[in-house]
Amino acid sequence: MIEVADVLRQYGPAYLEQFGATMPASHRRAFEDILRCRTAALGGHLYECNECGRQHYSYHSCRNRSCPKCHASDTEAWLPQRQAELLPVPYYHVIFTLPQELRDFTRLHQKKSYALLMQTAAHALLKRTADPHYVGGLVGIMAVLHTWGSNLAYHPHVHCLVTGGGVSADGQQWRPAREDYLVPVQALSKLFRGMVLDRIRRQFPEIELPSSLWHKDWVVHCKPAVQGTEKVLAYLGRYIHRVAITNSRILSIDDGKVTFRYRDSRTAATKTLTLDANEFIRRFLQHVLPSGVHKVRYYGLWSPSHRDHLHTWQHRLVKPSPDEQPPSGLGPSVEMPSPPPVQPCPYCKTGTLVWIRRLPPQGRAPP
Prior knowledge:
Blueprint lengths: L3 H16 L5 H12 L7 E6 L5 E5 L12 H12 L7 E7 L5 H6 L1 H21 L9 E9 L5 E10 L1 E3 L6 E3 L8 H19 L16 E5 L4 H12 L9 E5 L2 E7 L6 E7 H9 L10 E5 L6 H10 L36 E7 L8
Antiparallel strand pairs: 1-2, 1-13, 3-5, 3-8, 4-5, 4-12, 6-7, 9-10, 10-11
Helix pairs in contact: 3-7, 5-6
């Protein structure tokens, strides 16, 4: 299988020669880590098959959050923790998208603008849902930052998983949202637009934004999680520990070009796109987040300051019958740790791998 690392290995030196002097530190670190991931440079372990005697090298991963080969196990660990925090109520999936006119600004000021985007989306939701006409209570919000479209284009937006109801101001009542309706989307969009532009004006007084931003409609989607809350959570979980493109989508690298699969967001059809190698690397690296930027944030009832209320309402909202088991949303169960899985030999397929020794890292070499 062709990997992003293969593209960087083959065409990266020319890219660095042209753009290396202006690359952000986070881009350069991701560049180097991806090249070294699961190679002898990071060290690892040596195993031997107890049947055929062949040796197998297992190298360490780089753990860079932008690496396509890392973090599958992180997603598996993250999902049960979040599922244990779910309330037994309906949920809504809300998406906030920045308009095209703000994308250059966001790219230039990523650290501040990503935080501003996520905070404003959540605060707009909290303000609208606090209105007694809609929910009239404190909802729980999990916000997940995405910066890419399927074709690697720069497309910053925030996915929010929102409880279909909230806790009253006195903390004594649960106020459910109306069936299949959370808040009016057009009003939420206008509120989000006004709050974003006002915060940009206050945080970046030297920047003059186009006046057209105040008059165009900003894209906000809100829909019930009819396919099931856990499915929406699993969907968001895949993106939390995933980067802009997976290795399996890359079809070929040849003659200075990279061809990959992508899904057209308008038609849902699978298409192919061929980019110059430099353009492919540029598009990939623009989705590497600056150090210190969090992809996931929790607000309202899911914020750390309200976790006691969350656990209280997990119990109060559940009404199990005598023959029912307690729901999974009441916290993680205590289980005995299972032994590490036995690794089959990748060569003879009948034996198992036995650990021989640890392989030390070979030092940090330039890409």
